TrEMBL record:
Residues 82-309 form the Glycosyl hydrolase 94 supersandwich domain. It comes from Eubacterium segne. CDD domains: GH94N_LBP_like (cd11749). Residues 323-462, 622-811 form the Glycosyl hydrolase 94 catalytic domain. The lineage of its organism: Bacteria, Bacillati, Bacillota, Clostridia, Eubacteriales. Keywords: Glycosyltransferase, Transferase. This is Cellobiose phosphorylase.
Amino acid sequence: MGNLKYLDKKGTFTLNNPDLTSYMYFPLANEAGVMSSITPDLGGDIKLDQNTFLLEPVSSENLHNNKSVRNFWIYVEGKKAWSVAGRSAAQQAKLFDDDKEEVKLTAGIMWHQIERKSDDLGLKATVTSFVPETKDKVELTKIEITNITDSHIKFTPTTAIPLYGRSASNIRDHRHVTSLLHRTFTVKNGIEIFPTLTFDERGHNKNTVYYGALAKEETDGVMVSPISFCPVTEEFIGRGGNFENPYMVAKNQPLPYGIGEEIDGYETVAAMRFADAVISPGETKTYIIALGYGNSEEEIDKLGEKYLDTKAFDSFLEETKKYWQDKINVSYNSADSDFDNWMHWVNFQPMLRRIYGCSFLPHHDYGKGGRGWRDLWQDCLALLIMEPKQVRQMLIDNFGGVRFDGTNATIIGSKQGEFIADRNNIVRVWMDHGAWPYLTTSLYMQQTGDIEFLNEENTYFKDAQIGRGEHRDNLWSDGEGNMQLSEDDTPYRGTVLEHLLIQHLTSFYDVGEHNHIRLRGADWNDGLDMAEKRGESVAFTALYGGNLRDLAKDIMTLSKKTGKDTISLAKEIEVLLNADKTVYDSIDEKHKVLNAYCNAVGHKVSGEKVSVDCTKLCNVLNEMSSWIADHIRKTEWITNKEGNSWFNGYYDNSGNAVEGDFSSGVRMMLTGQVFAIMSGTATDEQVAKIVKSADDYLYDGAIGGYRLNTNFNEVKTDLGRMFGFAFGHKENGAVFSHMAVMYANALYRRGFAKEGYKVINTLYKHCHNYSVSCIYPGVPEYVNQRGQGMYHYLTGSASWLLLTVLNKMYGIKGELGNLKLQPKLLKEQFKDNKAGASCLFGGVNINVIYENPKGLDAGEYSVKEIYINNEKYGNGDVIAKEDINKLNKEVQITAVLG
């Protein structure tokens, strides 16, 4: 297995023998809707959505099982057939031999290139693939065949790409029957399919989508069309043949179809034959292939006219490379250039998540696209750093998914701010959902100084689910729409602040028998989904508590900024604010308060508003926050028989604490520690003890760092399905990147820089070690028991890692719109006593360089002087917002540490 090497500072990398890793895939996509995946042997698929797959849908196991790839065959006269994808039966048979073919991958952001050499034939093939950053729905591939001998070589070229052209559901739901819908026809430059109907969960409908595979060769500077075709799979492979040994290629038979023929009712292959070629030593022959979609035959044909040209291909490739690199406007310059390049891919991952959602890559074979509630808010974290202009309205629109009982819509539409009622009556409440919007809103306000954002208004979501998932509103009907109505039947509108308060106040009262917030259907860890009745999440109770304290600070800042001592809130919220604080200790009294509120807002709300004094409101929020922190410290701090201490994070459906000493061994979970640290619930002394316990029980450097939990040695059905997973996989004890990164974030927040760096550096070093992690650059969802990165690319951990490295490690962050420089870099991260990062802040591209002349370590230095474009700005670590606004679009900021 080869070593992965970077070729520049923009993430471009090379890797030898990637074909020796069976589960590798790479994303190719654009913002017009094309979502592709491609493997070293040109497998993978292409789709627009669940119902519009151009190539056959693949899951991870299909990557090595399928013989259907984007194949291109070379038949050398007097020798044999050779696949440039490596997918011939003969090549597969020699995969593990010492004389296997040389294969080299070179790839960058949204482009992929494979080089393959055949010493037997004296040929080298270079296959370059990408999806152009245009509005066209097309994937392009250029195949270059080079003679690496001293003699002339004559060969017959054939492209053979199996086309699917239907819904993913048809893989085993009428697979054959839906092939009968195919109307396949040959055109001058390729093969197109126009199915008559679509059969899927939408019903039987007339099809509107054309699928096409087009190709040309370059001859003497002129692009030339194929000479013959075979669109029928069973004809092309022959009786007893298959796509790794197709009859028409193996026997070098002429393809039997010409231009303008229609063949109906069969599985389709885009098999196209080009004229025989003779290439001299060192000469290269070029072929261009376009796989795309259109709403008419003319649209498909236009794709060919636009893209089937070598110069056009090269031009669009360079434009696409530049487009995506320009999008990634965050970069780093440290002593470890490999880390800087790895983070370049991490910075890119949130963009992939916005395109693919949580589906449509081989490991992400669940769901039908789209994102969940957490995704809306966590993806915005990266947007705030990289594309902040569009975030403000996006955040406002996202608040439209909040219900008046503090829960939220769980079906999210394709349009921004679109939320859909679940008419299947599947009640799901994730107890953590109310906490995430504040974290993102807080970051937005700190980055921009736009504290008045809290006064922006939006509607609330409404469906039949009321009482925080406990009851059904039988008065509600589809005809009322999906917005909460007032008594006058108009949609009620409330401020962002009101939305946030409802989310946090209702959660505060929604407690279980140990007076922590109920777990309900799950929290962030979706695997904790079997403790709905008696489960409690101490972990996220701590986070809600920290949010309440910080929200109180924001309200006072807003009051000072606007000069207003009161805020306007829905009248019904008074019941949540006016409870005497002695109620906090009583579970029954809390339930009474919550029930009174939920009953008042069950169907419609009054529409009345009241003025609430800001100081009194903040006192209530602070009292709630302090009560939560004190309660957790008093009741959940564990010291086990080995003398280690940490917080219990959960209660199961039997009402028992989950963590501590058990007959099966020590039980510890990372999540409870993360939010106790992040929220300030844990004291500094407790943080130090948590770190020791996590190092003793959760840390495993061989698999990338900190496991999500220890081995419970039990299929714990009174807590969650995660315990049915094998230990060390996914939520059950894997190194789960999201929580590991949040652990690092929490440690940096509390000044534990060395400990935070250990978390990130261990994860990075492991992922970067391709021979173990078996993934391309970037952070995966998790690392399994064997150290392999899993569910790559589409993970919320990328946003948190970007945020943690830039804001915490490099200390480049907003402070109510001011630029604050507060690095926590270790001395080993400086090269020649310098380190830095570039990003967008306040509309200005800033390049921050930290000078550490004394070689000090994190915790030993602070920013003493700041220079802007080599002119001294001042002492201290803050550049005022008004001064940022005066800067040019690009500036260099030098911060001297001492």
